[in-house]
């Protein structure tokens, strides 16, 4: 307990950092994932090729390598002076977007083809059909895998601690450098991650129940 009480401001900053990078990168992953999923089912070949290339590249690139690219290559070429938090959120969001894309695409495939054909028969465009008809029906199927994806994102955020982003795993490194016993430090770090992951799981369970009632 002394490890936590004596260093509570640092632990608090690390916990807030983990929650912040999880929230921001989740939004990035969700928006990009839905857009790329739309590309993957698009009738326009270049968009389908781009979507396939995006998923293939992101899913097969180690996350640590992606962090290295964002922290040491992107600032040199595109956006110099970006904060470590923004770079970490982008790296984590881009990586996770490929998994969100595949979850959303699998949900889209569960919607009967007749739904899209009926929408097109009354003059809807592809984007209108996807937004108004297909995605709302696919949401019920997509919610459970998205829960697992965002929980995995929370745990993956630990990598950001090695790149000067204030989060829980960075606090663990700080405490280790101060000479504290590693066991209680890891217990508090694990409890911090459990709070975040249980919260995400609870939110998705609540959302799933609401969608079941709507059904």
Automatic annotation (TrEMBL):
It is found in: Cell membrane. The lineage of its organism: Bacteria, Bacillati, Actinomycetota, Actinomycetes, Kitasatosporales. Belongs to the binding-protein-dependent transport system permease family. HisMQ subfamily. The chain crosses the membrane at residues 15-39, 60-79, 85-104, 146-165, 185-207. This is Amino acid ABC transporter permease. GO terms for biological process: amino acid transport. SUPFAM superfamilies: MetI-like. Keywords: Amino-acid transport, Cell membrane, Membrane, Transmembrane, Transmembrane helix, Transport. One of its GO terms (cellular component) is ATP-binding cassette (ABC) transporter complex. Its main location: membrane. It is a multi-pass membrane protein. GO terms for molecular function: transmembrane transporter activity. InterPro entries: AA_ABC_transptr_permease_3TM, ArtM/GltK/GlnP/TcyL/YhdX-like, MetI-like, MetI-like_sf. It comes from the Bacteria. Residues 15-204 form the ABC transmembrane type-1 domain.
